[in-house]
Amino acid sequence: MTTALPMPTLSAGTAGLHLEGVALASIAERFGTPTYVYSRAALTAAYAAYQQALGERKALVCYAVKANSSLGVLSVFARLGAGFDIVSGGELARVLAAGGDAGKVIFSGVGKTAAEMRFALDAGIGCFNVESAAELDRLNDVAAAAGKRAPIAFRVNPDVNPNTHPYISTGLRSNKFGVAFDEALDLYRKAARLPHIEISGIDCHIGSQLLDPAPMTEAAEKILGLVDQLGREGIKLDHIDLGGGLGIRYRDEEPPTPSIYLKPLLDCFAGRDEALCFEPGRSLVGNAGLLLTRIEYLKPGVEKNFAIIDAAMNDLARPALYDAYHEIVAVAPRAVPASRYEVVGPICESGDFLGHDRDLSVAAGDLLAILSAGAYGMTMSSNYNTRPRAAEVLVDGDAVHLIRERETLSHLLKGETPLA
User: Fold this and answer.
1) Structural domains for the chain
2) Cα gap 66→369, rounded to integer Å
3) Residues catalogued as catalytic
């Protein structure tokens, strides 16, 4: 296995590629394809890198559940003591089912319903990241009805360009997220007057797949100025949430390590009493997982050759959605010259591709590994074309655990009723 590939726990063996101590071919034989495969060692190492970077600083790493919400993955982070960043009541239910500490949960998102707020209050979550004045009013009313005070931070939009894909940019003035920087002070003043609101912190998040610390540092400096202004008005904060978004290597990117990325942020807030919170997602799980798939057909064409696989855009939406690149490698390359293929799925859409112009030494029936698929893979999957979703397994050394069984057609049809 070349060291140029982005997944450090993937290696070559006599039976082809291995993840940790397990041959991918044996996973395909046992669980079928397509199957998501995750490395516990990689998950643990990624989390440890953040903890090491934070050192003795009073801080909390809240894993962004949206990146990968499988209970098996969440339970690994729960056992490591992580907090969790959620954006729905469903994600909160998953965190609790996985053994997560509700007191370390931060509830983000622009569209929280009253029912979700009640659920979170009853669970005793750590903080609501409020993203509008209307949400603040609703949360105060819900908390009043429950006889509670809701801990809140405002997600403040610093209007900083993160230099990432526009679909995953979240901190610009034109984005739907957060409250405008110029309106934040008045909103904090209002919140301080509400009887069922308890001001806890401040939050900002500028985007995902960030490869340069500079934009986040710029945002942090703006947030720091606002924190000091709030302090002068007697509004003291317990924590400052600087979001997540650190990128990973998919192809030839050179993302900073957590230590390099966090250092200017930690320097910015050095000597302060507030706890710091971070919400990494992709950087914890992205290169801890791959999608294992099998070639159904090799189809030569006039202009292009196609490798038609049993995974599709419903399994991994990122290529079709963002034109995202994922490395694709043969699990057991053949000793023949490589041919160039479009790697595509069976879905009835021209946009159903997993990779363009890939050089592969393969035959029909061979296994492929689509790398860096641990983030925004299974969580964004669907049943389009009435396709059951993939299985998920977690590799732990030489052991393999099925953490989500493969869906069946009976799963898909359950709850539907045809007309008589």
Assistant:
1) 10-39+286-413 (2.40.37.10), 108-280 (3.20.20.10)
2) 23
3) 348
